Amino acid sequence: MYIFTITLLADIYTSIDDISVATDSGCICGGMMVTIFKSMNYQLNQKNIERLIVKILKCTNDLVEFSVDSDRVTDIIRRHCTFNKIIFYGFTVLGCLLVIALLLLSPMKNGLPIRAKYPFDTTIYPYREIALAVESVAISSGMLAILSMEGLTILMCNYTTMQFDILNVNFENCNGKTANKTGSVYRKPNDTFMTRYKTCLRFHQQLMSTTNDYNNIFSQSEFFQMLSSTSIICLTGFQAVAVGGQNLDIIKFGVYLSAATSQLFYICWMGNELTYSCSVLDRSQWLSNWHHERFSSNVQLFVLSTMSVRHPLYMKAGPFYVCSLKTYIAIIRFSYSMFTLLNNMHTTDS
Fold first, then answer.
1. Interval 272-293 mean pLDDT
2. Rounded to an integer, what is the distance from CA 77 to the centroid of its chain?
3. pLDDT class of 179 with cuts at 50, 70, 90
4. Where are the beta strands (DSSP E) in 163-227?
5. How many alpha carbons fall within 13 Å on the CB side of residue 95?
6. How many angstroms separate the CA atoms of 254 and 259, rounded?
7. 94 and 184 Cβ atoms separated by less than 8 Å
8. Of residues 293, 142, 278, 284, the one with CA closest to residue 212
9. Can you tell me the distance from the alpha carbon of 131 to that of 57, in angstroms, rounded to the nearest whole number?
10. Can you give the C-alpha Rg of the chain in angstroms?
11. How far apart are CA 132 and CA 95, in angstroms?
12. Taking Cα atoms as reference points, which of 147, 133, 54, 17 lies closest to residue 93?
């Protein structure tokens, strides 16, 4: 991947005066660079990621065991598992289509499916085969890496969101009561309202710590992903619409554009869901039947806890952005503005 990225950068440098050629290589280069950056981040934070995964799984098991309303918790788990499957299969299909489009459906340029600058003639044997092997391995391994990393990252974020959804249910059932199909009520002798309420608060503090750990590990990668996605959306749209070319080129850049926008959408959607699940915790506290309890000695705890859960939590993308649908729309708008600028420059040059 490193070698292939260097050849792409060299091609961009030598073709900097030709917008159509430079943007052709820039499309692929943006995807390769973000893959390399995320791979390095995973390698440097391997131990931290392992601890975070263990932390998320343990908290999930504890929350499920603590939950009283098992039917609602089961529905929440089933819904999030379905979402994980959709993400996995959707990413896999898009990834396979993108590899096929880049390596098999692209028109040959200098004997290769992807433009790149090599220090030898790629139209003759055996240099053509060497360059083709570099591109094939780089594209395939890069796609496998990004699918694995994005799948794991989104899975952790989705599990954290699921925990907040389960915590909302537990806040609403702090009285420890729920009815089964026969209408009977279950409650342990020491399972009082205040005991369950304080336990929910401890879970909330743990989930806040989990979210902060997640952001500390992945926020820089998500920021780089947004920068890369902005450039990819802009450049692929420019290549597919403004430059045109052969039908195979349009198919290639169309698939690439779909992959970039969908990947960015999944990330922003998960961040939006996480923020929403956190934002309704105060409502769940209010529905906990607190007014049926005596709060003469616990008023301060209840007030402070309500203020605590109102503290917003976000899936961050560096120090400047948060992953949300609002950010996604802003990126699409900015990409369109950059596309318009490139199109005007291309029209002027022509």
1. 83
2. 19
3. very low
4. none
5. 20
6. 9
7. no
8. 278
9. 44
10. 25
11. 19
12. 147
Q: What does the pLDDT read at residue 121?
A: 87
Is 121 exposed, middle or buried (CB count within 10 Å of its CB: 0-12, 13-18, 19+)? exposed
How would you label 290-313 residue by residue, b for 16+ Cβ within 10 Å and e otherwise? Answer: beebeeeebeeebeebeeebeeeb
Asked whether the beta carbons of 154 and 270 are under 8 A apart, the reply is yes
Name which of 32-41, 174-183, 285-294 the model is least confident about. Answer: 174-183
Amino acid at position 1, single letter: M
Residues 230-248 as b or e (16 or more Cβ within 10 Å = b)? bbbbbbbbbbbebbeeeee
pLDDT, one tens digit per residue, over 12-54 is: 988 888 877 788 888 888 889 999 999 999 999 999 999 999 9
Model confidence pLDDT, tens digit, residues 215-224: 999 999 999 9
Number of residues assigned to the chain: 350
* Separation CA 281–CA 205 (nearest Å): 12
Say whether 317 sits in a helix, a strand or coil: strand
Bridge partners of 322, per DSSP, are: 316
Q: Which amino acid is at 123?
A: T
Structure-block tokens of residue 245:
């070319």
**Does the pLDDT at position 342 exceed 80?**
no
- pLDDT for residue 215: 94
Dist. CA 324–CA 157, nearest whole Å: 13
The amino acid at 50:
E
Per residue in 86-97, pLDDT tens? 888 888 888 888
